Recover the amino acids of this structure.
């Protein structure tokens, strides 16, 4: 009777499955950070484009009013700086996330 009880317990232990991770936990595992942190750069990109819209609008208004060439040149330089800076930040984050996703895909493919 002891053997039968031990065998039944062993059979039950084998049928216990771990709960699957939540979508948030799965994303954390793949991206190495909370999904809200991962999409932060989409928000930053949106905000940057708003800034650039304002810079281009100011250039347009200065031009229409016969504004000073030096002001237009400075605004254009500001726009170039903002776009380059944000491009570098967003590009680096994209590269990190793309590498993390590729690594997760390779791990998943290797496990199958």
């Amino acid at each position: 009777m002891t053997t039968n009880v031990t065998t039944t317990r062993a059979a039950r232990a084998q049928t216990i499955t771990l709960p699957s991770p939540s979508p948030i936990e799965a994303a954390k595992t793949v991206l190495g950070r909370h999904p809200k942190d991962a999409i932060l750069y989409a928000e930053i990109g949106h905000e940057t484009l708003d800034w650039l819209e304002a810079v281009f609008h100011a250039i347009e208004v200065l031009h229409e009013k016969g504004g000073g060439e030096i002001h237009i040149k400075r605004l254009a330089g500001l726009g170039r700086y903002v776009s380059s800076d944000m491009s570098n930040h967003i590009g680096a984050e994209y590269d990190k996330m793309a590498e993390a996703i590729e690594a997760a895909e390779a791990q998943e493919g290797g496990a199958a």
User: Anything to note?
Assistant: The first helix runs from residue 2 to 15. Helices lie at 2-15, 23-31, 35-38, 40-64, 69-111. The chain has one domain: 22-111. The CA atoms of residues 20 and 26 lie 9 Å apart.
